[in-house]
Amino acid sequence: MRLQLSTWPEVEAYLERSTGIVVPIGSTEQHGPNGLIGTDALCPEAIAWALGERHDILIGPTLSLGMAQHHLAFPGTLSLRPSTLIALLRDTLDSLARHGFTRVLFLNGHGGNIATLKAAFAEVHATRSLAAAPATGAPQPALFNWFLGRRVRELAAELYGDAEGYHATASEVALSWYVAGVEKSATMTPRIAPLGSAECDAETFRRRFPDGRMGSDPSLARREHGARFLEAGVADAWEAWQGLIDEE
Amino acid sequence: MRLQLSTWPEVEAYLERSTGIVVPIGSTEQHGPNGLIGTDALCPEAIAWALGERHDILIGPTLSLGMAQHHLAFPGTLSLRPSTLIALLRDTLDSLARHGFTRVLFLNGHGGNIATLKAAFAEVHATRSLAAAPATGAPQPALFNWFLGRRVRELAAELYGDAEGYHATASEVALSWYVAGVEKSATMTPRIAPLGSAECDAETFRRRFPDGRMGSDPSLARREHGARFLEAGVADAWEAWQGLIDEE
Amino acid sequence: MRLQLSTWPEVEAYLERSTGIVVPIGSTEQHGPNGLIGTDALCPEAIAWALGERHDILIGPTLSLGMAQHHLAFPGTLSLRPSTLIALLRDTLDSLARHGFTRVLFLNGHGGNIATLKAAFAEVHATRSLAAAPATGAPQPALFNWFLGRRVRELAAELYGDAEGYHATASEVALSWYVAGVEKSATMTPRIAPLGSAECDAETFRRRFPDGRMGSDPSLARREHGARFLEAGVADAWEAWQGLIDEE
Amino acid sequence: MRLQLSTWPEVEAYLERSTGIVVPIGSTEQHGPNGLIGTDALCPEAIAWALGERHDILIGPTLSLGMAQHHLAFPGTLSLRPSTLIALLRDTLDSLARHGFTRVLFLNGHGGNIATLKAAFAEVHATRSLAAAPATGAPQPALFNWFLGRRVRELAAELYGDAEGYHATASEVALSWYVAGVEKSATMTPRIAPLGSAECDAETFRRRFPDGRMGSDPSLARREHGARFLEAGVADAWEAWQGLIDEE
Amino acid sequence: MRLQLSTWPEVEAYLERSTGIVVPIGSTEQHGPNGLIGTDALCPEAIAWALGERHDILIGPTLSLGMAQHHLAFPGTLSLRPSTLIALLRDTLDSLARHGFTRVLFLNGHGGNIATLKAAFAEVHATRSLAAAPATGAPQPALFNWFLGRRVRELAAELYGDAEGYHATASEVALSWYVAGVEKSATMTPRIAPLGSAECDAETFRRRFPDGRMGSDPSLARREHGARFLEAGVADAWEAWQGLIDEE
Amino acid sequence: MRLQLSTWPEVEAYLERSTGIVVPIGSTEQHGPNGLIGTDALCPEAIAWALGERHDILIGPTLSLGMAQHHLAFPGTLSLRPSTLIALLRDTLDSLARHGFTRVLFLNGHGGNIATLKAAFAEVHATRSLAAAPATGAPQPALFNWFLGRRVRELAAELYGDAEGYHATASEVALSWYVAGVEKSATMTPRIAPLGSAECDAETFRRRFPDGRMGSDPSLARREHGARFLEAGVADAWEAWQGLIDEE
User: Fold this and answer.
1) Coiled-coil stretches, from where to where (chains A, B, C, D, E, F) (predicted)?
2) C132 and A98: CB-CB below 8 Å?
3) Which of the four, A185, D167, F94, F243, has the lowest number of CB atoms within 10 Å?
4) CB-based contact A42:A66 (threshold 8 Å)
């Protein structure tokens, strides 16, 4: 059940049977020579939509902008400052709390979002903690990174081995192509991109990773792989969701 | 050409032939008994995508969250505070400036965003103006509200007359249904919703507009009308785009 | 009754008979070759003071700084960033709420303030809306732009026709001269200033409007016109105030 | 020369002969049983206007809102948060820097503003200091508190002795009455108000100072005293201004 | 009793017998040719620790960073912006309020912190004052500047006379050397540093005070003096603490 | 070499031979029945001081306040909001950049700081990345968590096995006792504390972890272990520092 395609009376009815929601969050950033700029949003969105359909879970709108400052030396990348993303997530959680949602799972497609997401959760918690507010009824935000799920990792290892890499990975390229119904071709030079740290500014990042890839060879990606990653991702996310619901 | 479905080398090539971009912006908010919560994002997104395809214009990711505080008494509404939306738009414009975009048209689907969008543009301009920075090269943001376009207004008047209304309008319900491939039915009581001001808090809004509609009878909406609104909207947006490009 | 000239026991007594207040808001910005930099504050201040005297309405201090970033390429202009003006208005409304004021009419003299004023109202509303706070007792801010009042517009059309213009208009120049007891002379070249959009940065604005006027010929202004604009403005504002008080 | 009553070409001409400006800043807050709520703005404004006329100094618009949180338990008081006032002063200084002003003297009428004014100056300096920006050309803000001037203090001691007090003082009540052309009467019980610290919240302040006065007996104030305080204040301010101009 | 060396059950027990706490606050900034960069933190920390031991007062962690923007042209200086320091102090006070502390004395070692500390207290008070929150139970922050204590000032006058100065003073150099067990030697040229205002940016400050000292000759400092300043400082602080506890 | 105990000419000399600095960062938060509230600051501080002495590295002041909102239901805990900590770290990095430092290693003692530290680094990078500023000369912040070092982890496993735990661990209790020269005794019930997630608000945390420990039995801690952890920590940190210096 997608929030964007529902009416408010339908959401009111949903809240009678569940107070949980899944919100896909991604980024708009370069993904190497053959990866889509929307990769990090397209992947968790597709997994979330399938998850929502199969298990009657409400899926919020995809948050397409993330923390991607290190990719800004590549055309097309858009980035929020961490402080902006924290404010955006705070307002989203405040809005959901208003309606009685108590479980909010952010289904994340971008490693660079993780620190800011956690800082945002802490910012929201801090408001309650400093005010000695009772915990009852407050939404408990949680994070699941689809690309770190067990089944997804196993499938990537099986299909690409070491060529999976860390950014513009073969797996995410495959999944986003499948979902978007597109395919891009590009020569990878070197075949496997260099390794290194992404915790730097945009100029440094581009110097370290000249075509935007980190440790990957996404020329191995195939759209048909995408279908398998989608299945693996939905199974991983469903497991995460059940863990969240069972907690306490 | 959609940014989300492009690679960075494709964006680099686009920037050789144009430094303009269109960014759809909407809201996630109640739209009455039969309107979709995503209406305000779905409509400008569909118009933008068609515009981009027909005229080779780059279309950015849809910004799905807007300023919708007055709708928060209806389940499912998510709202950014104006200050958060200003920060988000500032970061988006800063990112686009980084790549050399000089024309940014926000294709807006939500009346409640207008004041904040203009304040955000002024916030970005103020940084330059206070620093006495030269205007050359800075992105000039502009705003086009699809629901105020001439052709769209004429079509709505022709199809619905006074029952078009001001929120959860028949026209936007028709266009979003068409785009999303859904249709919802609900009885409208009263047939035409009350009129009044939306510049108030959420409780007051719900007291004034009990089912969320403002002055409209969206039971008149038909999916096939949506196809016509799409055409009208694309023509209106194309006119706005050309005006923007011609300016100076 | 002017707040600045009252004691707190007098305000306490006023609150027994009314919980409404009018706050003039303007800007400190260039107004062309013969217009005063304080025009936008002087005009609504004079109207508010007369309104307050005739109808026993409390008039708050004039907020002289507004959002005027586009005028910063002309010496003497002072501008608040929109985010600053939002904070200022929030604190003002919070202060008024503390004392039990429930109706706050901002009598505005500057078109460039409108978007930020509306964003500020929404920022204040959002705090309540996100917290699901009851609407009772909260101040309802409202906006009235004296230069858009019916009687004022009719008088300007009668006196100046198309030469009234959009910034450094003949009507505001006349009213401010009358109120301040001054008069300035300057040659207008061209007689009627160019038209265009003011939604840009300061350098662009000055390039578009070399002497600061937009579409006007303020050499037509006469101090004696000012007296008539004052009367028209007070009548328009009184109508707006009554509408506000009647609302709900 | 008052900025509000000047045209931009006049300011441009002024900048040829001087790059200094005086900005009156006050507060909108209770001043005891017979003191005006606008006292803290009216006093420095009157001194600044006279100073400007006699010595050809440009006088900016009066900033009427200050940091008055401790007075909020008395009806009519409006207060900015310190963080808001810092932003307002930063934008004002940034605007003045834009035009080439290098000396900005804030002529202050409210003790409660002092800490925040100094913090604001430091906030503006910090931007330059952290960026290792050259000091040349940046505006040097300075502060002069008219109520602490030597001549003013001597006159207050002569006229009122210990009954001058610390808030709602006899001297400021006299000056503001003179300037505003009003006079209020009220019985003072006790004759001299209690002493104590004002660095507390509003409820505590009102408990300590039940009618709003601190250590004063403003029933001693006379309008004719006001004329003498104005002269003393202008002489003190002129001395402060000359010191500022001579510095370095 | 030092908070850093206590367990939470020990703090819980302390709160049974007292709800007061002392928090040392300093700065990390140049202190001339022979003064330590940590001087402003080391001095109040040592006084606070001794105070806490002798009188069973809980001593919080030393806040080592202060508002030192004017010293940034000297290597090693670290400065918080005033707005950052305000946020830090607000969070500290909010945390202490959470546990039931009602008296918080900041034992300050840096003149440049005073304005920002007072602004921060007002920021915290304003939240309560604007909300009309009852004063009961809220922490009352207070400030004591050890270098302005009566006994300390007398001792400095006795030992150094006019060579004590205003920054990198002989007294603070002596106390910090004693506390840190170090001693530095440097030639002072001129023997007594120039006088002037420190309310300026970093470049201006260094131009005015080339080696960082203001009006002092810290070559007179001796470690054995430090022991006497410590005693004087503890006695002064104890007096301040008792005044705070007695208040109301 | 400790910054706090150095003079500015000594820092100037240091910068001739190195542009790196280590800044210890901790937290002020409960550490179970026998752990010190200052544990997270004391441990990295001691390691940093030893590291600095042995290898001539400049050590900045210890940042004692961290992100500890989840511990606020235990008396004595102080927490910064993530947004405040981000501002504090930004100002610290801006200050260091001013002096020419290019390598800043935060030696961290608190797991709860990690996300906010990374968000803060990204906030600083984003300023450069959005401005397309050249990377040359900007400080590269890096993070080393002493409790995750290889040697430290091995020693903890050897000494405590599974009883080491995740908060109020035996290893950090031992090291802080050793460093502070104290020892506390308390009965642990149950002997090994429960496991679970700390990403929640304060009330929830205390419900999950009633005495503040997470998975640990710190009654196993011994001061003499602390000496060994110090050695292990210094060796781990030295390795991290060398990796940082070698990078690029």
Assistant:
1) none
2) yes
3) A185
4) no
